[in-house]
Amino acid sequence: MSTAICENVSIERVTPDSISQLQKISKQTFVETFSAVNAKEDMAKYLEEELSLEKLSAELNTNGSEFYFAMLNSRIIGYLKLNVGQAQTELKDDNALELERIYVLQEFIGQGVGKLLYQKAVQAAQQLSVDYIWLGVWEKNYRAISFYKMFGFVEFDKHIFRLGNDKQIDIMMIELIGVHHAKQQIQNEKNQFEQNIAEQRKQFEACGCCLDEQYKRYGNTEFLFAKIIEPGHVYEIGYPECVCPDVLSGKEKDASHCECSRQSILYILGDLLPNKSISVEIIETVLSGAEKCRFKVTME
Fold this sequence. Notes:
Layout: H1 3-8, E1 9-13, H2 19-34, H3 40-50, H4 53-60, E2 65-72, E3 75-84, E4 96-104, H5 113-128, E5 132-138, H6 142-150, E6 154-163, E7 166-176, H7 180-206, H8 211-218, E8 225-230, E9 234-239, H9 245-248, H10 259-272, E10 278-284, E11 293-299
Parallel strand pairs: 4-5
Antiparallel strand pairs: 1-2, 2-3, 3-4, 5-7, 6-7, 8-9, 9-11, 10-11
């Protein structure tokens, strides 16, 4: 997040007299996030039934549920919903906090607003002395999955989420709050990931926000290589050697662990090019027996 924006964003508790604003930001962010990949009829049904003033008012007044706005000066640019105790949609564990919703306006994605909202959830969890935070995220919402993994969330189950008449699969994820050693490791990995994002953005901007130019100039280092297969469309990105701490320590030996690297590449490129449709495929990895880790990137 830029310093100017960071200094002016505050996280504020939503009160009943702000219900109209809550409905507006809820609908706008939901449409921006999901309308391009879901049927209009299913979207309309969900917006009408699940984000009505009556439904949101009931949720806001439920004991154990809290909503928070992300405010940029006087503008609402995102929001958060937390549940504890019997207000949780599942589990109902008194030692847990559910992060049910975290949404940010499209124009502010990638600027750290989601991180501020997540930090508010962690703060609430610590104040309540719960053991863990859990959430459900659509299996096809790859950007969100990468975001949660960046903060240490891991998958533990799946459940059905109904969008209108469409039954979708949500991945259920959990982050342990009380395990200090694990938290420190997660923090270190998160710091490294954020440094990587910052460096990639610095290079991208230095090349006039042109990915082809960035890869021509910076695509051959001891840590990363990038090849332009089809300018503006297809690329090969990879690592000359595996640098994953879990692999180097011998903790992880299963090639499926490399999905984390695929998701990281997807997240970073999505941050640089938010208006592009991006897919990342694993070509080969060190854990699969190859000499290096290679990924195919396609952009539309």
